[in-house]
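Please, structure for the following, as tokens.
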Amino acid sequence: MHRLLKWLSRRSLRHLHAGGALLGWLAYLLSAHYRRRLCDNAALAGLAPQDRRASVAQAGQLVTELPRLWLRPAHQAIEDPVQWENAELIDLHLQPGRGLLLLTPHLGCFEIAAQAYAERFGQVQPITVLYRPARQPWLRELEEAARARPALHTAPANLAGVRQMMRALRKGQTLGVLPDQVPPDGMGVWAPFFGQPAYTMTLVPRLVQQTGAAVLLIWAERLPRGAGYVVRLRELPQPLPAPPVKPSPAEDQAWLLSCATSINRAMESVILQLPSQYLWAYHRYKQPRRLPTR
């Protein structure tokens, strides 16, 4: 498997995306379960048929572009063109002693967003990215090695990872989070996402509450014919609700639900700007798993 991934990493992005489109359609046609989830989730969002069809190919491209991103030497720059839109927002919020949260859904090439940030801004303020370790040992080892890059650190989605992220923010560093990722049991609330209750992480409002970090939206659009990527940045459409002073447990829970609902709306607004590149087959509405303790 490693030899195949190494071979793929040396192919051009255009060829990888062409093969990825084929892979996406094969997965769609061969797996009824995958096909049903993709179609059901897309229908909840009112996705146009042409965007749903395009998302099938884009999901495959997400897979085939990973070897090129993961297996290049750690100190080698991203090989494909990366453009920025509204990069000045990061400059505006990179303040000494104040952390920054970058939120992106499972949209476009979310893997490259963190790498591009680390290359452009990492010397000023490094980034730590929350991720869920793969179940397969060989893939988990590959992920950890591939993501260990200058000014780019990773934190697993468990209690130790949460503590690591809190320390990074308190040092005034940057965090990257996928807030549409289903959190472990006890670390979320059920909030609407495209009109359906989805278990939504409460980590983001807790981090902001305890550190005063700024929050921005970020996503990386995959350009056609292997032309590279555009990393786009936006402010939140609405600021997160302010936490209550000395809340009761019920008031605290209501505040977390309000924050989760606001974040989900922000994710929806970003996704609908580029619906053909959202990972609609992601199991967004599943029951949460038990929290790992290590």
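The CA atoms of residues 115 and 152 lie 7 Å apart. The chain has a mean pLDDT of 92.
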